[in-house]
Structures are given as C-alpha cells and as structure tokens.
Amino acid sequence: MGLTSGTKLGPYEIVSPLGAGGMGEVYRARDPQLGRDVAIKILPSFLSRDPERLRRFEQEARAAAALNHPNILAVYQMGTHDGAPYLVSELLEGSTLRDHLLRVPMPLRKAIDYGIQTAHGLAAAHEKGIVHRDLKPENLFVTEDGRIKILDFGLAKLIQPPQAFGPGTPTLTGGTEPGVVLGTVGYMSPEQVRGHTADDRADLFAFGAILYEMLTGMRAFHKTTSAETMSAILNEEPPVISQAVPSTAPSLQKVVQRCLEKNPQQRFHSASDLAFALEALSDTGSAPAGAFAAPAAKKSWWWVATVGCALAIGVAVLWWFAQPIAPPTVESVTQLTNDGQSKNGSIETDGSRIYFNEGPFGSYRIVQVSVHGGQTGDLTSNLLNPQIVGLTGDGSALLALTGAFVATRLTMWSVPLPVGEARRLADTDVTGARLFPDGRLLYTLDSGTFIAGKDGSNPRKLEEISRYHALPRISSDGTRLAFEVDDENANSWTIYEAASDGTGIHPVLKWRQDLPTDICCLRWTENGKYLLFRGITDARSDLWAFSDEKRFLSRPPAPVRLTNGPISYGSFAASRDGKQIFAAGAQRRGELLRYDPKTHDFLPYLGGISASDPTFSRDGKWMAYMSYPEHTLWRSRSDGSDRLQLTYSPVVVVFPRISPDGTKVAFSDDKGVVYVVGMNGGTLQKFTEGASAPDWSPDGNLLAVTSFRNGGYQSQIVDVRNGNISLLPGSKDTLGPWFATQDTLVATSNDQSKLVRYDFRTQKWSDILTSPDKFVNWEMSPDGKYFYYSTGGNNPTVFRMRVADDAVEQVASLKNVRMVNDPDSGPKLNVTPDNSVLVLRNIGTEEVYALSVQWQ
Fold first, then answer.
1. What is the pLDDT of residues 741-799, one digit of tens each?
2. Are strands 786-791 and 775-780 parallel, antiparallel or unpaired?
3. Mind listing the pLDDT tens digit for each residue in 219-258?
4. How many separate domains does the chain show?
5. pTM, entire model
6. Cα-Cα-Cα-Cα dihedral of 282, 288, 291, 294, to 10°?
7. Dist. CA 370–CA 108, nearest whole Å
8. Which domain holds residue 207?
9. Is 134 an annotated catalytic residue?
10. With 787 labelled, which of 12, 249, 289, 611 sits at a CA distance of 20 to 30 A?
11. From the candidates 31, 113, 134, 669, which is the catalytic residue?
12. For residue 395, what pLDDT is reported?
C-alpha cells in the first residue's frame, strides 16, 4: 500500500515503514492519546480482496488479541483504512530469532532461556485453545532486553470448543480443509506434512526443530527441495546434537528428541510440561557452569540455597525417572535393491546376505542380496514356487513352503545355503511353519500348533496355543513365542507372549485408539527387547516397535510407529547386529492393461487407470472396480465416465461382481464378509461372514461363495432373496466357484491343480482339466461362453476354455508382465465384454530397504 509518514489511520499517525511482516506491511506509528509508539500491520487492498487472505489476517488478530502474556506480541486494536484492514500492536525493538541464528554459535544459556520463554508463551496460547501452526525462527522476536515474543498467528487455529473457556474468550472462525498442508517446510510436524489435523503438539514439534537449530546452528530438517525436506520429516531423524556440540548434556538432548517424535503422542503432554523440563535442566546444571548463576546471596542464607538446590535436584531426578523409556527412532533409510521386481513372502538375513521372494503369486523365486545392497541374484533351487518362512540360527539353511497360490496344505522343505538340493521335511503337509534357531520346526496343521524335530519327527502339540489357532513367532534366542489374536467383530486385537513350550501365555499389548486396527507379522529384534509388527492404515502399512521392558517409576512404554510413509512396508526382519531393519517397501500403483491379440501386446485400458478387478454389466454399458491400492469400490460407465464411489474406508473391498441386471454389486472384504450394494450407492447389505469371492447366478437370485471351515475351503450358495445359506454337497476342498450356467459351477480343487465342475441337477462334481503349474486366476467371460484362467510356474500363461465343449486354447503369456501382487486379494485376471483379457500391471516401486534404527 506504501503509506507515507503522517498518514492517519484512525487515531494513529504513521511515522515510518518497518518492512513486511507475515501477510502484511508493518509501520511504526504514534498513538497520541497514550503518548506511545505502536506497530501497525496493514493488509494491502489487493490482498484483502482475497477472502482466504482476509480470513487469515482477521484470524491472526483474534488469536493474538485473545492472548495476554509477556512472551506473546500484545495486540491493541483492529480497524480498516480505505477498505484495507489493519492491526495495531506493541512496538518491538530488537530482531527476529532468525537474525540471531545467523550469528552462530548461540550460547547454550541463551538457547535454553529463549526456549523456556517460548514454551511459556505457547503454554498460554494452548491454554486458550489456540495452536500457532507456523512456529519458526522468523516468528520469534528477541527484544533488546532479551525477551522472546511470539509473532504472526496467521495460521492459528482454535483447538478446543469456545465453551471450554471464559465467556469473553474470542472464537476463531474458519478452518483449514482436511488434506491441505499449511505451515513452513522444515518446521512442520509430520501430521502437517500429511495434511492431517494439527493440534498443540504440532507446535511442540516445531519448537523442537527451533531448539535443535539454536543448539547446533543447523536446521533439523533441511534438504535440497521442499519435497525431500518433507520426506525427511516423515522418515528421518536429524543428526544427534552431541555430534555438533559434544558438551550438550544428554538430558537436554532427550528434551529435543522428545519434541521431535514423529508420533504426536510421544511428545510432551503440553507446553507447560516442556517449560518445566527446560527449567529443571537449568536448575540442575545441565547448562555450563555459571550459565544461570544468580547474584550472590548473603552467607546467612547459604543453607536456604542448599536446601532449595537439593529439592530442585530431587524434583528433576523424579521427573527424569517418571518419563517413559526413550522410544526407538529410524535415523536413515537406504535402498538396497533396484531390480523393479515384486517382493513377497518373508525376509531373512544371516548377517551378510538377505533372502526374500520375488515374482508374481504362483511363480515365486528365492533371491538374495548383500546387506550392503547391490545386485540381486536367484538362489538355485529345484522347488516350484517356494515361499521362504525361516532361517536356521547358524544361517546354514532356509525353511521354505511349496504349494499353490491359495492353499490349505503346504509342503516343508529345507533349502541349504549357499547351494544344494532342497530336502523335504516330514511327511505331513502343513498350513504354516516357523523355524527355531536350532533348526526345530514349529508348524500349524488344521487347528493345532506343533513343535517337531529338525526333520519333522516326533511332533508335539502345544495345547494352550492351539486354542488360539495361532502360528507364533519365535524369539532370536528360541526361548519365547509371540502371536496376535484378532477380534474381527470389535476391530481389535491382542498380542500374547508365551514360553517356547507354549506355556505361560499372557497378553503384552492390547489394541487401543492410537494404534492401527489391523496388524500382522510379529518379529523380535535380535536382543529380544523389542517386538516389531506391521500396522495397516488407509491402504498403507508402517513398521511399529513395542517393548514390555519397564524402568523404575517410569510409565509403561507406548508402541512406537517407526515409519510414517510414503513407502508402505511389507515383510521385514531385524539385522543380526541389531542396528537395522531390512524391509520390503513399496509405493503402490497399478496400470490396467488390455491384451491385444493382433499385436500380441498388453496396452493401457481406460488410460491405464490404477483399478483392479473390473467387472461389467451384461449389456456392457457399466462397470464396477476397486481402486488400487485404496480398495474402495467405484462404478462408472464402460468408457470410464460418470464415476461414483460406492464404499469408503475402513471397508477393504475385494472381488467385486455386478449383478446380471446391472443394478447391484456383490463383493467381499478383507475380513471375509460378503456384501451387496446398489450401483447408485447406499447402505451395504451384509449376507454372510467367513466367505469370499461372490459370483452371481445368471438369474441374479444366488451367490456362489468360497468359505473356509474345518481347515479347508468349500463352496456355498447364498440366496439373496431370503439370505439362506447352503453348503454344496461334496464341495470340501473346492475353491472359487463361478456360475458357468444356471445349473453348473466351475471351481478349482483345494491344491489348485484341477478345474472341477458341479452339476446342480445331479449334485455331483467332475474333473475338467489338470495343470501341473497350478491355477492362479479364473473368471467367466461376461457373455458366459468362455472360462478364462491363468497358470503359475516358470511360464505363467492365460488360457480360455469354451463352456460348450471344454475345448482349451492359449490366449497370452504373462511371463514378461509384472503383475500387481495385491496383499489383500492377489493378482487379478479379468475379461471385457468383447472377451479381451485385462490385467493390472505393477508400475509402482518395490524394493528392499535398510532402516538404521537408534533403539535407545
């Protein structure tokens, strides 16, 4: 606006410009009524016409005016001049904290003093229900007498309902839309980076970054680009303060570290607690000698000083012991592989090499890479589709299971390292297995959990654990077992521990609101102090750590989320030296492809949208599909237009199917519940639990589903008219039934080696086809004329069988197609109304990473 000296704004007279401040221009002005100089911030008219700028300017005024504290800029009045709003505040003499930081290093005494004042100012704001959300050195002013003033509440937000305060408390109106990132890169909290709701703990994170900078002269999070900086905030820890300033007391480093916790719940409970912690450090001599020295007292009061000091030390010691054990933190993430292949199964390490599975479901290979990264290489094996599940303590052999993509019976094999022929273990097939460090086997079979010798001999049932139907994870020293039990009805879970013989079962962690509702894949660190697990939230999984170690007077340690995206971590293992976690990480995205028989190539379909399992109406005009990786259900026209979302989180959709009349979609979720929803949305209608993969009968009255009961798969029929459920006779060990006609179903055998047909008229099953490479996917064409299926093995291929005479022809090879291996529903094979094959290609990243962890 460029106001000149002498310009009148109400009773105030402009003296001189002071420069820019926040969103406005700042001037020195004279208040003739009170005979004092003030500062006036004015929003230029061209900016005041922007409703969002004006709202934030007015919000700053209300926020600051609501606060009366020596460490917060005092606001006197708000008015307008020629249509432009202005704010009158106290005039400050001095410079911003940023200016002071340019003159590094800052004395430790000053850093702690400024920190205490800032914490007190934040506490005053938070007590009024106001969170700053843009705390940074530019918004902290240091007056000439050394007083801190918090400036610029332009991003401030009311965090408690106004009723919680006195009747005169101003109310901040207007908010931030969910998902909008506000703040300054480098000082934003992880929740602000994600666009999530930010409360007062976001200010504590920013405070930690500022205190870190005051102590070290370096920014806590500062990369080349904003995107890299935000990624560092989410995934990395700043260098340890003592590396830059060796004299820094561990207790002060602990305060900074606690402010910078990725999980808001791990930070200080309040700014008041933070201020107390800093004051306790100054009182107990965590600063250099003499840094906080007071004027000498008279000798007659020496005993008062002594008692006071002792009390302060006692309080500080109690406070220290009352703090929770410092949580582990990920200090860096290093990518170890770069081969672009799907990573599956378990990850195992012997200290020098990392072993894992690559390839699509049904075509697994065992692959290895150095713990330092580099080229990956296949581990030669005579096994077809081996899945790694364990490694002996001496690193001499892997435990692998072989079987179909979806199987209730798997065969155990010992795979010698570095080379050698695999050897089968035990004559009994199992449903899952683990390996004790000494080579003994732990496996599940039907509803029982067993321990057996190295070759599978002399099995012994663990009666107590068998009641939980659990396959426990074994600690590195072989003395403990851990397993999780889900309560799907309540969306909760409990983690239990037991002795290695299955006795002494006791809970060690139960689900609560601050933890993910879905977890899996427990693993111990090498020293046995921490249990690691995957927590799944919003189609992404992060790594968590939990310890039941207790310390005198301290609160029980809370589980800690080690990773915070954007990478979604799958299988993982702790390193043998205890310093790292090796994990398969993915940034998931798919591309829908259609096979062109003329060019013998897969080409993008509907622009290559990231959509899985598309299903089409009988007339070919409509389609339904699930978004990938979100697993929400959508419907649209067949050309992709007129899209409508039908389901929302937390429902995880798998296997959607449009009804024959095109009015409804049946689907199952990841919990094994079958639903039906209208094509125009509405309430989900639940039909059955413990079932999956529904398919409509041609008349639209029945659903064929797969259920898992009594240790095996079987086929059921659901009558959607009345909800009745019936078991197909002789259907035990059949999987994935599809209606070929109104009177016949096609399914696979339990081991996925055969296609079988059920005739409703004779109520008999009969074999159709056999494949040594196992059936991985199968689906009926929309016109009902063909049954499409794909096989696994070393040369995965798509075939189709003509329903009229069972004639089979090859359609396409999948050998060079990197298909999405969806952890919730596996790879997908679909068919368009014109009988073209559709697949979802994996165009995301999927590599093995090393996470360096500071375990505390």
1. 999 999 998 888 899 999 999 999 999 999 888 888 889 998 889 999 998 888 899 99
2. antiparallel
3. 999 888 887 888 899 988 898 888 888 888 888 999 999 9
4. 3
5. 0.59
6. 70
7. 44
8. 95-292+300-322
9. yes
10. 611
11. 134
12. 92
